[in-house]
């Protein structure tokens, strides 16, 4: 990376780490850094874990996982091990370690498979299963359905994409969570309204972690049929904040009048992570319905700042 590029990356990092900046601007800076990749970008992201926003820190960990760079493992382990940290952030750090896929993370993930915070424990159990699946013998490899979303997921899809078959697995709470996640991603990859409605039924399942992942997947699909059930869960003040937050972000991705109205109704929610999620999601709605070329556009802004400084 050229020296001026390193300087520009650091400028983006300054946008991200400055708590005086609007959260929506900081999110755009974060996703700019994720897209850039490299140790400098990871250092900028890692420096932001001192922030007070659980939403932002959760998103930092998510991005580090999606970057799939082992350089991020030490900071993610530190976050996962910190029992004073918000459980939503710790969960995302565990999931990120699974996404990076290094067998070196197996020990710390196994350690937290019985974590007192159930969402952290379930996440680490899933991550352990993913690592074992990822590093299985060549003879056990499967012909997986293609992932049209280019994301690194906590479980691989099943080979069978039949909606009725995968719906039955998804909603059967006696089936191991990893297998239900596989069904979830199979339904996502299958696409279409029937799959969306099957997934939306999962918003009523017992595990908060599971419900939150269903909301995330519905956001990826950006299908209008998902907006009413997502809005209904967002309205439920008794629901786990992690689930409500993910419903808000999913509505931001779906956009449209129904989604925007639900988000505006909770932009001043009593729960900080929900309130902030709605504010960021409204910015995403604006992007999805506008003519901006790129959501993660802070590099150009940083280069302008660099040129004029």
UniProtKB/TrEMBL annotation:
Residues annotated for Fe cation 2 binding in this entry: 212-213, 245-246
Ranges of the HEAT repeats in the UniProt entry: 72-112
Pfam families hit by this protein: HEAT_2 (PF13646)
Keyword entries, A-Z: Hypusine biosynthesis, Iron, Metal-binding, Monooxygenase, Oxidoreductase, Repeat
Cofactor note: Binds 2 Fe(2+) ions per subunit.
CC cofactor: Fe(2+)
Annotated signal peptide: none
Matches recorded under InterPro entries: ARM-like, ARM-type_fold, Deoxyhypusine_hydroxylase, HEAT_type_2, PBS_lyase_HEAT
Pathway: Protein modification; eIF5A hypusination
SUPFAM superfamilies named in the record: ARM repeat (SSF48371)
Domain of life: Eukaryota
Catalytic activity: [eIF5A protein]-deoxyhypusine + AH2 + O2 = [eIF5A protein]-hypusine + A + H2O
Enzyme Commission number: 1.14.99.29
Residues holding Fe cation 1: 58-59, 91-92
Protein function: Catalyzes the hydroxylation of the N(6)-(4-aminobutyl)-L-lysine intermediate produced by deoxyhypusine synthase/DHPS on a critical lysine of the eukaryotic translation initiation factor 5A/eIF-5A. This is the second step of the post-translational modification of that lysine into an unusual amino acid residue named hypusine. Hypusination is unique to mature eIF-5A factor and is essential for its function.
Protein family membership: Belongs to the deoxyhypusine hydroxylase family.
Protein name in the entry: Deoxyhypusine hydroxylase
């Amino acid at each position: 990376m050229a020296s001026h590029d390193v300087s520009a990356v650091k400028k983006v990092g300054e946008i991200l780490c400055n708590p005086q900046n609007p959260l929506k601007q900081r999110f755009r800076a974060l996703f700019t850094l994720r897209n850039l990749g490299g140790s400098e970008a990871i250092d900028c992201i890692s420096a932001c874990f001192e922030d007070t926003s659980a939403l932002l820190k959760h998103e930092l960990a998510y991005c580090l996982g999606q970057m799939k760079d082992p350089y991020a493992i030490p900071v993610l382990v530190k976050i996962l091990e910190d029992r004073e940290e918000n459980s939503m952030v710790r969960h995302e750090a565990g999931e990120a370690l699974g996404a990076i896929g290094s067998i070196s993370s197996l020990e710390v993930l196994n350690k937290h498979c019985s974590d007192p915070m159930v969402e952290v424990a379930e996440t680490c159990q899933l991550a352990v299963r993913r690592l074992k699946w990822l590093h299985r013998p060549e003879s056990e490899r499967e012909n997986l359905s293609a992932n049209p979303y280019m994301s690194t997921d906590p479980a691989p899809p099943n080979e069978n994409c039949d909606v009725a078959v995968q719906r039955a697995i998804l909603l059967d709470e006696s089936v191991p969570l990893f297998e239900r996640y596989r069904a979830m991603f199979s339904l996502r990859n299958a696409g279409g309204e029937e799959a969306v409605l099957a997934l939306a039924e999962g918003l009523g399942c017992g595990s908060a972690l599971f419900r939150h992942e269903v909301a995330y997947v519905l956001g990826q699909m950006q299908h209008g049929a998902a907006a009413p059930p997502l809005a209904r869960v967002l309205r439920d003040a008794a629901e786990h904040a992690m689930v409500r937050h993910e419903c808000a972000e999913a509505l931001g991705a779906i956009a449209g009048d129904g989604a925007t109205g639900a988000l505006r109704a909770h932009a001043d929610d009593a729960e900080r992570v929900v309130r902030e999620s709605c504010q960021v999601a409204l910015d995403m709605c604006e992007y999805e319905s506008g003519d901006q070329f790129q959501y993660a556009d802070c590099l150009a802004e940083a280069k302008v700042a660099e040129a004029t400084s």
